[in-house]
Amino acid sequence: MCVCVCVCVLLLLCHMLGHFLHLPVLSCFLSLVSRGAGGWSPQVTDRQPWLQLDLRDRMEVTAVATQGRYGGSDWVSGYLLLFSDTGRAWKQYRQEDGVGRFAGNVNADGVVHHKLSHSIRSRFLRFVPLDWNPSGWVGLRVEVYGCAYKSYVADFDGRSSLLYRFNQKSMSTVKDVISLSFKSRQAEGVLLHGEGQRGDYITLELHRGKLALYLNLDDTRLRFSSGRVAVTLSSLLDDQHWHSVLIERFNKQVNLTVDTHTQHFRTKGEGDSLEVDYELSFGGIPLPGKPGTFLRKNFHGCIENLYYNGINIIDLAKRRKPQIYSGNVTFSCSEPQLVSTTFLSSSSSFLSLPATLSASGGFAVRFQFRTWNPDGLLLSTRLALEPQRLELQISNSRLLVLSMGTQSRKGSLVNDGLWHSASLSSRGLQVTMTLDNEPSSTMELGDHMEAGDSLYFGGCPSSSSSDSYCENPTLAFQGCMRLFSINSQPMDLNLVHQGRLGDYKELQFDTCGIHDRCLPNFCEHGGQCSQSWSHFYCDCSGTGYTGATCHNSIYEASCEAYRLTGSSSGLFSIDPDGSGPLGPTQVYCNMTENKVWTVVTHNSTDPVRVQGSTLQKPYMMKFNYSASPEQLMALVARSEQCQQEVVYSCRKSRLFNTWDGSPLSWWVDQGGERRTYWGGFLPGVQQCSCSLEENCMDMNYFLLSYKEHLPVSEIVIGDTNRTGSEALYRIGPLRCYGDKSVWNAASFYQESSYLHFPTLQAELSADISFYFKTSAPSGVFLENVGLKDFIRVELSSPSVVTFSFDVGNRPVDLAVKSHVPLNDRQWHYVRAERSVKEASLQVDQLPLRFLEAPSEGLLRLRLNSQLFVGGTAARQRGFLGCIRTLTINGVTFNLEERAKMTPGVSAGCPGHCSGSSSLCHNSGRCIEKNSGYVCDCSQSAYGGPSCKEEVSVSFNRESSVTYTFQEPFSVMQNRSFQASSVYRGNSRARENMAFIFMTTQSPAMLLTVSTFSQQYIAVILARNGSLQIWYHLHVDRRPDVFSPRPSSLADGHLHRIRIHREGKDVYLQVSNEYIYKRCENVDEEVMQAGSKGFIGCLSSVQFNHMAPLKAALLNRGSSLVSVRGHLVESNCGAPADSTTSHPLSGKCCCCKTQSPLNNISLHDSAVIGGVVSAVIFITLCVVVVMTRFLYQHRQGTYHTNEAKGTEFAETADAALRGDPALQDAMDESKKEYFI
Fold first, then answer.
1. Where are the transmembrane segments (predicted)?
2. pLDDT over 90 for what percent of the chain?
3. Cα–Cα distance measured from residue 72 to residue 49, given in angstroms and rounded to the nearest whole number
């Protein structure tokens, strides 16, 4: 049993220049507050003060407490906690979520106690103040809680090992528990190995600083193959600090735990037992028959408390038991003096050391470094001819020596977080660079190094310094360095720290502060994590998801959603649970006039003949669908109705036993249950619905329509064994229609009413989306709280939606302000998202507001109450109005069902625009009117009463449409109100484009978007007719091009194109095929396409939330619109919608004659203007291309009778500025869009 102890620091003075506290371990608790003295306070001149404790021996520390100086105004408000076994090499303690900062005191007398989430086993502790009372100074009293710690230690020198020999020839186990702790001096080395003759093996080793476990049960193929697969966990394990390992195995199930991280997996092999012959080896894999010779690099470091199935291996070795062979192993841990220094800042950190030339006139510098950053200055020194310098850099993740325009580069990546050894030496004018064990490379200098000059490591001092010629090339180095040697003389950084040697800035001595931000991996849905020193990044390539953490699906949730975007029948990928754990699946969407059918096929849709089956040996067929069972379940649950066709004919075969009614054939539902009914809506009745209703037309045709049982997963036929007996069956595909989540709504008519649901599961990420309409000036849409954390979305004023949350860092408010009231009794869309990387808020088509999360801070949102929708637990600030389609993390909440049992709330929502029928198509907005509704098509690329009529134009080689965007609405910038300083605002570069085209010409220019700064987007057909999307994001770099596939689209057929870009990721839909790719540099083909123009038909052009082709053609005559050449209105071969009115309840509402719609359109114009002005967006074309393209076309005209919100404008220019489709998506300068 541990004896609890505490160490109390009482009224002692210490500072960083070697004044250590040596305190005895006390066996009783002492009072933290001591009268009669003050506490610890450093000298004002100390640059980096700290308080260090020596516990006299390794102790297990479980908690710490702090207090300010007694009787004064000195206290520490924030600090770091470091620990060490030696007092030289330190490691920073990190709390949950990797937070290193401890909250301190707010006054001199209060005690702040921190219980450590995982204990520290160490002798030395160091408290490093970060912040203190601004009106006072650093003052500190501390108390440490814990207990004594005993360990059995063995030291391995890289040539030694321990062998544990069994009492029998082999050891076979079905359950194993292996535990140990280790600290290593290198990134490679075997910790544990055992193997058996039948192919079993277990190997635990360090590889590139990570722990790898190889485990196989009874599979000889894996033993002799080169394809052994390891389960890897953790990283940076070569930091000379203790790490704990626990392996738990039962049969094939294995749990591997390293420190606080656990991974569960199933092992390879055929058996359940691990059979190891003769012995287990620790510290290396000895070569049979050659003691001291090893197959793999063995371990160099210390291991303690090594237990194998309850056996203390090190204790047996110390007592020299015969079953243990200990070769060159000692039983105390030697401590190497490898002390690191951390360069904290990528802009201002540097270390300056004097550089004295050797007797031969040259110099030699050696050091080791580790970092995650791809760029940074490692070393810089001045040459005799100023301002020339010799520099060693990390450039694009590789080492680069640079001097006077001459450079030498090493090919290996060095930003992998591992230690790398670099050396730079000169002799005469020749410089030699060596990296790790790679061959050296040389280059010639233009001048000698200046004698007596300084060497700058990691960066350069500010320009005000005496050495004004040292400049950081891009960034200073951010990482760790150690083992500095100049001309074979090791550098003592303690002297630097004490101010007696060289100079420094923004360094942390005696510790390497590198932190793996990809552990754990916060990238969702299989996204790949990469990192820099201060951030991690997710590569969502090929996952089907996008966003900062690959959280959001790029696919629609249903075929109904695809129809609302204007798609026609075809194969589509759908993601039924959106951002949930299920992936996308491919289905066929059959979009008929009345319904949208989702069709899922399986592996046996052809008729199958069955003979010779009996009840004892029945015929069985399992159906494998194109979607997983979980995806099918989600699809069926989301659909309004599902059905599956069964065709069955037989001869001398029965479905049921005529004597007792027992089934002879049956089918199995999605849950694995046997079903004996064969049609209709009455499960359990062993007949068909048509026979019950006496209206059967064909007894061989059944329609299964009880959707909770669908789809059919298996069919069993058991009565075809008599002479001449046979059965013929066919199971059709699963067919579902409708999306019942789209119009699932609830109406709140009492401010104190709300709906409650189980606690929101959103620790690391949450996306919340819904529609609302209200006439109230404010109200809470939803709220969920914990002890301190909370998340809330509310209408905080008639024109502001606010997304608020707190994960423990401090409250954050993210607000979007509309220039028009949102309490206008019309539907408005809200989407709020929060992840460990960022938070965002979208309202209608207003600019998307981003806040980037702090790189250091708590990550997990901890909630424990119910989720309240439409109000709060306090029954205050409740929402009055309607909420529909509430979806959180891909799950749609059934508001209607919960509303039926809640006072003050009713299911559904009154109004013509609240039905499940889609009244307005192609992103058209349904506007409620007293006698009906109208469709606002201002944000749609389509026109007409229902936003279904294409706006299409036929172009010839001399024709084009050009228009210019402006930013008239400064109010729409949507700055975040009262945003926390720990979150940084960010606008992610993204855009969406869609259009339909038909042509036989290639090359061809389809459309371009450009700025006067020569940035551009261009969508072209290349010479071979293939589609290419060009992005020129940086004017000093070559353009990027996305070429999805080589097939020609210049085939005279209609092609629907959808393009979505987010950062470097491009998602493209060509007709019904989705393609993902990252941009690459290629040669410019856009020039030839631009010179050829376009011959063909363009239709339904959409850019973000604008319809540029429609907007330009409806506002001809404006100075902002230029129509060149001859344009012909066309429908591109597709039939136009002829609907002219919307009769409702016996009334007719014609949208072309409703004057109030004009006011609504004008309001939307301002909204859209704001949207475009806040989105960062890229553009098209090199000046030569655009100059030729712009001036080779002649002006033409286009006429339309479509009513729009520009009817009240006094001039054409004013109408354009008020039109929502004519507002920009970039900066303050004008942009142009060419079609």
1. 1166-1191
2. 38
3. 19
Three-state DSSP class for residue 539: strand
Q: How far apart are CA 48 and CA 126, in angstroms?
A: 12
The span from the CA of 76 to the CA of 68, in Å, is 7
pLDDT in tens, 1147-1206: 333 333 333 323 323 232 222 222 222 222 222 233 333 333 333 333 333 333 333 333
Q: Compute the distance between CA of residue 718 and CA of residue 727 in angstroms, rounded to an integer.
A: 10
Kindly write down the DSSP assignment for every residue of 747-790, as one continuous string. Answer: EE-STT--EEESPP--SS-EEEEEEEE-SSS-EEEEEEE-SS-E
- Please give the Cα distance from 175 to 272 (Å, whole number): 9
Bigger pLDDT: 319 or 470? 319
Cβ atoms of residues 235 and 418 within 8 Å = no
Measure the CA–CA gap between 726 and 715, rounded to whole angstroms. 15
Q: Report CA 479 to chain centroid distance, whole Å.
A: 24
Tokens of 162: 């321990």
Whether 774 and 928 have beta carbons less than 8 Å apart is answered as no
> Cβ(1070)–Cβ(1044) under 8 Å?
yes
At 925, which helix (H) or strand (E)? strand 925-929
With H, G, I as helix, E, B as strand and everything else as coil, classify residue 1162. Answer: helix
Which of 530, 417, 513 minimizes the C-alpha distance to 94? 513
The two tokens of residue 407 are 């450079």
pLDDT value at 355 more than 90: no
Find, among 746, 741, 829, the residue nearest to 561 by Cα. 741
Residue 467 to residue 463: CA distance in whole angstroms = 8
The span from the CA of 689 to the CA of 686, in Å, is: 10
Over the chain, what is the mean pLDDT? 78
Which of 79-93, 706-720, 1208-1222 shows the lowest per-residue confidence on average (mean pLDDT)? 1208-1222
Alpha-carbon distance 1173 to 966, whole Å? 8
Nearest to 783 by CA among 869, 885, 903, 858: 869
Task: Write the DSSP string, 825-893.
Answer: SS-EEEEEEE-SSEEEEEETTSPPEEEEPPSSS-------SPEEESS-TT--SB--EEEEEEEETTEEP
Tell me the C-alpha to C-alpha distance, in Å, between residue 727 and each of 561, 606, 611, 622, 676. Answer: 41, 14, 7, 17, 16
SS3 category, 1113: helix
Helix (H/G/I), strand (E/B), else coil: 542: coil
989 falls in which pLDDT band (50, 70, 90)?
A: low
Distance, in Å, from the CA atom of 895 to the CA atom of 518, rounded to the nearest integer, reads: 38
Which of 709, 705, 702, 715 lies closest to 736, judged by CA?
Answer: 705
What are the b/e assignments for 783-807, b being 16+ CB within 10 Å?
bbbbeebbbbbbbbbbbbbbbbbbb
Q: How confident is the model at residue 1063 (pLDDT cuts 50, 70, 90)?
A: low
Out of 192-206, 346-360, 623-637, which region has the weakest mean confidence (pLDDT)? Answer: 346-360
| pLDDT tens-place string over residues 929-959 | 766 778 888 778 888 888 888 888 888 777 7
Other beta carbons within 10 Å of 1176: 14
Closest CA to 1213 of 1124, 1110, 1122, 1120: 1120
How does pLDDT run across 38-77, given as a tens digit for each residue? 889 998 888 789 999 999 999 999 999 999 998 889 999 9
Which residues make beta-bridge pairs with 1039?
none
Q: Which two tokens stand for residue 464?
A: 């005000």
More confident residue, 761 or 962: 761
- Tell me which residue has tokens 């080492």: 399
Contact 54, 27 (CB under 8 A): no
User: Torsions phi, psi of 785, nearest 5?
Assistant: -125, 160
Confidence of residue 715 (pLDDT cuts 50, 70, 90): very high
